Every structure is written in C-alpha cells, then in structure tokens.
Amino acid sequence: MSYIDGFVIAVPTANKEKFVAHARHFDALFIELGAIRVIEGWGDDVPDGKVTDFRRAVQATVEETVAFSWVEWPDKATRDAGMQKMREDPRMDPSNPENPPVPFDGKRMIFGGFEAVVEVKA
Question: CA-to-CA distance for 78 and 23, rounded, in angstroms?
Fold first, then answer.
C-alpha cells in the first residue's frame, strides 16, 4: 500500500491565492520526486470541537483558514528518497528569490508520515 505525508496549516484567509501559487510550485516537485498524488484542501467546513479540533491544533486565528494537505507516495522508500532530494533541492530554499514566498507561519504547521493500513475504493 501507499505511504502518506499529511499536513495541517493555518493560512491567512487573505493569502488564499498566494497559498495556491505556493502549492502549485512545490507540489510539482513532490510529483517530480516520486509522489503519485498531491491534494491541497482549503477549509470549508471545519467545526470547533469540544476538546480539540483542526483550528486549535494549528492555533488558527479568526483571520486564518485551515488548509489540509497530503502527499501520496507509492511506498515509504520512495517517500524517504524523495524527501531527502527535496531537502537538498535549491528550488525548496525559501531564500531563493525565484521561489514563491511562504504565505503561512510554518512553525504552526503539523505534519507526519503515515503507513496506509486500510484502503476502500468505490
């Protein structure tokens, strides 16, 4: 089964188009380096929870929208190799003026890698 990297980010709502441009730039690199699919989700129905929720997890303010993204890889070995190459790629360097600016506070991003254990398809 595939391997998934998941990301939850608080993005200033006013930066939605900048977020989309940033995602289009960097998501192409994931595909180039072996990912088979990348999904970027913009919060639409993200309810407040009683104990915890997506907004609290990333300390989103009322001026921010929660984005939920994931990268699907064919397997963990491909993911590990791709992520290593990505860390070394100058196209990932935020100080490179050719790269789109980061439109969110990366310190509040939560992320992790997940082994797929169940897959149900229509």
Answer: 21
CATH classification of 3-115 is 3.30.70.100, yes or no? yes
Compute the radius of gyration of the chain from its Cα atoms: 15
The tokens for 18 are: 């900048």
Closest CA to 115 of 29, 1, 27, 7: 1
Strand order in the sheet with 37-42: 37-42, 64-73, 3-12, 110-115
* Domains of the chain, residue spans: 3-115
Q: Exposed, middle or buried: residue 62 (CB in 10 Å: 0-12, 13-18, 19+)? A: exposed
Using CB atoms within 10 Å of the CB of residue 101, give its burial: 0 to 12 exposed, 13 to 18 middle, 19+ buried: exposed
Quick one: pLDDT at residue 75?
97
- What's residue 102's pLDDT? 83
What is the pTM for the complete model shown? 0.89
